[in-house]
Predict the structure of Alpha N-terminal protein methyltransferase 1.
Amino acid sequence: MSDPAPRPATPPDARIDHAASLRYWNSVPANANVMLGMLGQYPWYTRIDLRGSRTFLQKVRRLIPDCPTEGKLGRGVDCGAGVGRVTEGLLAHVCTTVDAVEPVDQFLQIIRDSTLKRDGVVGDLYPLGLEHWRPDKRYDLIWTQFCVGHLTDAQLAAYLVRCREALTPTGVLVVKENQSTDPRGEDMFDAEDSSVTRTDEKFRKLFSESGLVLVASELQVGFPRNFRLLPVRFYALRPV
Ligand SMILES: C[S@@+](CC[C@H](N)C(=O)[O-])C[C@H]1O[C@@H](n2cnc3c(N)ncnc32)[C@H](O)[C@@H]1O
């Protein structure tokens, strides 16, 4: 058996360049089809993804003592919201009010102009990267999907601590992210959007170091195998 490839000298997250990420996302056209660009040109992907999220959240609500299992939660926030795909397809159905955090203004503008914003379902909008966001209120649900790869490990740990402190007594933080398939078990750097894809082990280490405990974790199922997409994992987290 040949030796495994040498470990990279520079940790993958040290290569993250926020300016390069923002340049990349600003180059993605912010129109109604923007999610196709964000999610690999597969229109069916988002249907499967959102259905999986609804089912996962329903299970999680039953696992949290005193969390209402029926009806809407109070305030949620869509972190790294893009054009509001998750806000519209999930959070607006399960929360009375949904805030959104997103650093790319052309994406946030779509949320600003949406019917959900006019109807008051979408609440406060924060034009910030998650590394700069300081929650100024408490949330019943903090949803963070397909965006923490833009944060370094240290920034992600600090973000997780802030989220932990911003949860209501029955609140929950959900992180839903791609998983590294690197054969050496390393996080993977992607130069295209200057992000890292982390291993399950790395996520669990950062959660535990941030004073969070896993209420539930599972893989998203239902994506056709022939597309060889990265595995996607949900983590539902609460303060230790
Ligand atoms: C793959 S898209 C996911 C959007 C949305 N969460 C979804 O699932 O539809 C990645 C998003 O992360 C945003 N992003 C880039 N850098 C970020 C940062 N530092 N903090 C938060 N979001 C960031 C991008 O602008 C983009 O909207």
Observations:
- Residues 18, 21, 25, 35, 38, 80-82, 85-86, 102-104, 107, 129-131, 145-147, 150-151 surround S-adenosylmethionine (CB under 6 Å).
- The mean pLDDT is 92.
